[in-house]
């Protein structure tokens, strides 16, 4: 059985790692699909996704000897799905003593740009950190306040989503809590950078939803997802989670 409490604990001390040692990692020597190997849950089960470990010569990786590449069908909600899957992998690896860092602009070499007919969408550097990379909660997390990311309601699950990582730390999510339902919206972009990061902002929503999911599972709750909602003045509707 997956230890969600261990993963939830990791959320409150994880830190993106950009400097790695060159030691080998048994976990990252896996040549198969990391999603299956780590029993990762998808946000949208109907989207085909593969997470493949690439070596530095397969992606011109000057950070570490390993990189996780995410390949996906490009259909509705695929970016949110990759963020959801990838952040669970991030937590699995970091809870095992490894370091990770989302790498939005880095893509594999031509021979590894597609696998099983799927395009590489985003990557994540991975490996043993050169030094211990953790931080203290809450002072170690530079994040928007709860009032800045919520439309209504707040609780432990929203706090878990609040501390999630995001591209350029822009935290594009808005969360609306209605009873036991959490609606996620992508905040309307402000400035050139946010407009340029259009796709990564959708991926970020999936990352925040992964944190909410892991915390709910750690607390012994069941959770389901849907994609039925409407845009609001402050943002575009992304997805919903119902916690029981």
Notes on the protein architecture:
This protein is of the alpha+beta class and 244 residues long. It is built from eight helices and ten strands. Strands 1, 2, 3, 4 and 5 form a five-stranded antiparallel β-sheet that branches. Strands 6-7-8-10-9 form a five-stranded mixed β-sheet. It starts with a helix and ends with a strand. 43% of the residues are buried. The model has no long low-confidence stretch (mean pLDDT 94).
Rough outline: globular
Order of helices and strands: HHEHEHEEEHEHEEHHEE
Spans of at least 5 consecutive residues with low confidence: none
- Give the CATH H-level superfamily of the largest domain: NADH Oxidase
Q: Count all strands and give the number.
A: 10
End-to-end CA span: 20 Å
Category by helix and strand content:
alpha+beta
Strand content: 15-25%
With helices defined by DSSP (H or I, 4 residues minimum), what is the helix count? 8
- Per CATH, the architecture of the largest domain is 3-Layer(aba) Sandwich
**CATH top-level class of the largest domain:** Alpha Beta
**Number of spatially distinct domains:** 2
Q: What kind of oligomer do you see?
A: single chain
Mean pLDDT across all amino acids = 94
And the CATH topology of the largest domain? NADH Oxidase
The main pleated sheet reads as: 5 strands, antiparallel
Q: Helix amount, in percent?
A: 25-40%
Task: Kindly provide the radius of gyration, computed on alpha-carbon positions and rounded to a whole number of angstroms.
Answer: 17 Å
């Amino acid at each position: 059985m997956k230890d969600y409490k261990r993963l939830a604990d990791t959320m409150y001390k994880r830190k993106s790692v950009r400097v790695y040692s060159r030691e080998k990692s048994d976990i990252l020597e896996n040549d198969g699909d990391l999603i299956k190997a780590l029993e990762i849950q998808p946000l949208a089960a109907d989207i085909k996704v593969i997470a493949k470990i690439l070596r530095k010569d397969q992606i011109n990786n000057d950070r570490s000897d390993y990189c996780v590449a995410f390949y996906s069908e490009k259909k509705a909600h695929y970016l949110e799905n990759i963020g959801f899957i990838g952040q669970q992998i991030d937590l699995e690896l970091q809870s095992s003593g490894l370091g990770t860092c989302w790498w939005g602009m880095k893509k594999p070499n031509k021979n590894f740009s597609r696998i099983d007919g799927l395009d590489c969408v985003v990557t994540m550097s991975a490996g043993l950190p050169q030094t211990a990379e953790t931080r203290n909660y809450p002072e170690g997390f530079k994040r928007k306040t709860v009032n800045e990311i919520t439309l209504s309601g707040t609780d432990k699950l929203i706090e878990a989503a609040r501390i999630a990582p995001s591209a350029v730390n822009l935290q594009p999510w808005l969360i609306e809590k209605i009873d036991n339902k959490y609606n996620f919206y992508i905040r309307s972009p402000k400035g050139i950078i946010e407009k340029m990061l259009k796709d990564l902002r959708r991926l970020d929503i999936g990352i925040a939803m992964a944190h909410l999911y892991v915390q709910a599972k750690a607390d012994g709750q069941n959770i389901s997802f849907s994609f039925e909602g409407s845009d609001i003045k402050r943002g575009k509707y992304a997805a919903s989670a119902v916690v029981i």
